């Protein structure tokens, strides 16, 4: 039987602190799950400081970088197509230097495709390496002999040039690599000198080739071999850290950057992961990786220069690279801000 006494005791129960607490939680949960949170008070935030792209007065592509005597030297191709032309049009390479990764000094043009008499043009991706005080610049150009892409090498006593053709002929010609029928598989050289002093050159498009270099750095040594990597397109870059060899490369097209790891320069290379996503409005990505003043950097290109940037009008950007404790690399976060001045 329901009496007022029993009604009171129910009310008393309902008002107990324990039940009140449960009700409060239930109400807050219901409010949250229906999206009824209180908006925070909004304030104006600082406009991002556009550190990327790092060079804005020219289109720059295919970055490669070295650290020499505490200075970073950045080597790029100069995208320079006429306004109505929509393909790669690069005739020269440029060099910049920096001691903080933020402020970059330019120099006179150090090398042009026409500096190789046997080439008909096309200053495609290239990379410089220092050995015994000389600087060797390995380049992709079109070989006038067969109208196919080939690799040349220039040399200088200074990281900023001027550079001159070190051989007077191509280091790699299309007929030396027969794993594919395409005429542009001999591009994008990257050179790595291992701890024992042996230099290796990796290059390719669709097929990834590599070979040892002779001590003089301007001749191949031994046979040309291949490395099989998933969805390899081009732009190999080799670096070493804490005993691991990292082979990063352009993966699929439009390009992401992916990487594989090995404990020996010649492999086997084990695929790891995507390292960088498609770089905005450009089909290509083309990375360089360096360590400088205790931090790791991922240097790449995007089509981010307003308003004409794109696949054939690229510009170099820099963001931080981070490693996991097991040596794998974290995916790069491409930013507008770029990096802070290195100290
Ligand atoms: O710049 C011309 C070509 O585009 C390069 O050789 C490739 O790596 C791609 O970035």
Beta content comes to 35-45%
Spatial gap, N to C terminus: 83 Å
The count of β-strands is 20
The run of helices and strands is HHEEEEEEEEEEEEEEEEEEEE
Discrete helix count: 2
Report the helical percentage. under 10%
Bound molecules: beta-L-arabinofuranose
* Average residue-wise pLDDT: 92
User: Which structural class fits the helix and strand makeup?
Assistant: mainly beta
Uncertain residue ranges: 1-17, 19-32
Please compute the radius of gyration using only Cα atoms. Answer: 28 Å
Question: What's the shape?
Answer: globular
**Biggest pleated-sheet summary:** 5 strands, antiparallel
Description:
- The protein is mostly beta strands.
- The strands form five sheets. Strands 1, 2, 3, 4 and 5 form a five-stranded antiparallel sheet that branches. A four-stranded antiparallel sheet has the order 6-7-8-9, with no helix packed on it.
- It is globular.
- Bound molecules: beta-L-arabinofuranose.
- The site of beta-L-arabinofuranose has 14 residues, from strand 1, strand 6 and strand 14.
């Amino acid at each position: 039987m329901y009496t007022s006494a029993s009604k009171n005791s129910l009310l008393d129960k309902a008002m107990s602190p324990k039940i009140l607490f449960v009700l409060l939680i239930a109400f807050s949960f219901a409010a949250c799950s229906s999206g009824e949170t209180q908006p925070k008070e909004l304030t104006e935030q600082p406009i991002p400081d556009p550190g990327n792209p790092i060079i804005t007065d020219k289109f720059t592509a295919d970055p490669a970088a070295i650290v020499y005597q505490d200075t970073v030297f950045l080597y790029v191709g100069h995208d320079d197509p006429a306004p109505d032309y929509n393909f790669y049009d690069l005739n020269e390479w440029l060099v910049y230097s920096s001691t903080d990764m933020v402020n970059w000094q330019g120099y006179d043009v150090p090398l042009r495709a026409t500096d190789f008499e046997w080439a008909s043009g096309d200053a495609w991706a290239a990379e410089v390496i220092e050995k015994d005080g000389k600087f060797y610049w390995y380049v992709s150009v079109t070989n006038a002999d067969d109208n196919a892409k080939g690799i040349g090498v220039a040399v200088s006593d200074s990281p900023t040039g001027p550079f001159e053709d070190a051989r007077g002929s191509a280091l790699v010609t299309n007929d030396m690599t027969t794993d594919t029928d395409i005429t542009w598989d001999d591009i994008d050289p990257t050179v790595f000198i291992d701890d024992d002093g042996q230099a290796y050159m990796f290059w390719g498009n669709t097929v990834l080739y590599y070979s040892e270099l002779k001590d003089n750095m301007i001749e191949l040594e031994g046979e040309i071999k291949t490395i099989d990597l998933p969805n390899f397109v081009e732009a190999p870059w080799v670096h070493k850290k804490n005993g691991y060899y990292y082979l990063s490369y352009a993966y699929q097209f439009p390009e992401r950057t992916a990487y594989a790891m090995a404990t020996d320069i010649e492999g086997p290379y084990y695929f790891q992961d995507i390292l960088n996503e498609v770089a905005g409005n450009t089909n290509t990505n083309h990375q360089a990786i360096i360590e400088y003043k205790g931090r790791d950097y991922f240097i790449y290109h995007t089509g981010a220069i307003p308003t004409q940037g794109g696949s054939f009008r690229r510009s170099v950007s820099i963001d931080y690279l981070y490693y996991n404790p097991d040596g794998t690399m974290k995916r790069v976060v491409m930013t507008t801000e770029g990096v802070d001045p290195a100290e």
